[in-house]
């Protein structure tokens, strides 16, 4: 089984962090392939960044098709481009937020997602509600720019831990979800410190991708995720024109 991990931002160190987390939980027969977007923002913080990251994400999914992959994971907790990717691809596509909150729902009645900036908190809160967990989850921002998670001297880990402690005390959280792919390497340590389940979206998405492939299941191509209709795309988008026949 081959699972493609696509980082929709252009920071390669974040890709490697996600790939390491994926390989740590992947089954022995699963190959993890990591890809970094070649166009777009260096980090994704809010709607504008997310919109401009989608073409690079789709280009990676397209350009990796000849080598083949059985499923793909979008390594951004905003689930950047998830709907478009599911429409484009013929294999299961997993997003970190959806995978993480579903997993947390198996483990706790109430949980808190701790993310980076306030603008991301609002976006993720909307996703959590969309995924049916609005009554069970709270989303908190720890005031950390994403790239600070790459800098050990930034104080980001202290801010994250402080917000987790507030979630446990004030929200009555029974589990914590790490709301950024850049936090993926912290899950095990934080779980040991706080004694509650700490869910990392990368790990959750990889295991769910393995399950879907093993079950022989993929995204429905009837209705909203039907393959794009063939039509010309103009200007800079010409290379994204659908090439599959309709139907």
UniProtKB/TrEMBL annotation:
Reactions the enzyme catalyzes: D-5-isobutylhydantoin = L-5-isobutylhydantoin; a D-5-monosubstituted hydantoin = a L-5-monosubstituted hydantoin; D-5-benzylhydantoin = L-5-benzylhydantoin
Family: Belongs to the HyuE racemase family.
Coiled coil: none
Pfam families assigned to the protein according to its UniProt record, in alphabetical order: Asp_Glu_race
One Gene Ontology term of the molecular function aspect: amino-acid racemase activity
Cited Gene3D superfamilies: 3.40.50.12500
Species annotation: Rhizobium leguminosarum
Record-given protein name: Hydantoin racemase
Highest taxon of source: Bacteria
UniProt-listed Enzyme Commission number(s): 5.1.99.5
